[in-house]
Amino acid sequence: MEPMLLEDCDGSKFPLCFNNVFTYCIKSGICVDKNDTMAIFIYIMMLEAGFVTPDYSNPQEESTCNVHSSFHYQRFLHLTRALPKNWKQNNVYNFTFILAPFTQHQCSITAIVIADDFVVNCKVKGISNSTFCMLIDPSMYVVQSGCLLSLNIYQNLKTLSVTFKNIISNSVKTLILDHYSLRSSSLQGLPPEILFNIFNYCDRNTINCIKRTCRYFEKMCTKQAS
């Protein structure tokens, strides 16, 4: 099966999104270093979570994607054929995304290079307590400089993808959907009665770990224990 997402890059073949965005950089004469690559990965992973850029519009998609906030592969590939304007300025990277159809809640991502680390901040407009942050060490994922389309300069991309989505993209998506009492495609989106059944099979250590993930699970696990 052809790799589709960033996390599918296993060292044997690039996903098409990879080829799209790095081919764009090469044709545009953009010199990409290790930090630029991390910023591009962030752009790709936000698109994988169902986000789009604010200027994206495709009327034909109405008939092919019933739920706009879900992952749409053709839309995803289209958006990886270029990078947003002014995405990079003096080691500061800025991206703006929306989760359609909730266009009023723009997600602003700012990534700053501090020493050898990559600090990522995400803020959602119009929702309180909506700031997310994570620290990335680029050398864990881009091991050397070289041809962008060379497989041997990348590693641990699945780890990067899972970590970023847990901390940033999926958390932001869940926050927006929760704001409108909508369920997301996640453990948190399951009905309470199913969650209670799942928790019955978990040991105490697992329950404690689940409780620490968010306030909703903290309440659910407390009810389960009482």
From TrEMBL:
Entries under SUPFAM superfamilies matching the protein: F-box domain
Cited InterPro entries: F-box-like_dom_sf (IPR036047), F-box_dom (IPR001810), Fbxo7 (IPR047118)
Any one Gene Ontology BP term: positive regulation of autophagy of mitochondrion
Limits of the F-box domain: 184-226
Pfam families (UniProt xref): F-box-like
Source organism, top-level taxon: Eukaryota
Matches recorded under PROSITE patterns: FBOX
One GO MF term attached to the UniProt entry: protein kinase binding
CDD domains: F-box_SF
Protein name: F-box domain-containing protein
Species of the source: Photinus pyralis (Common eastern firefly)
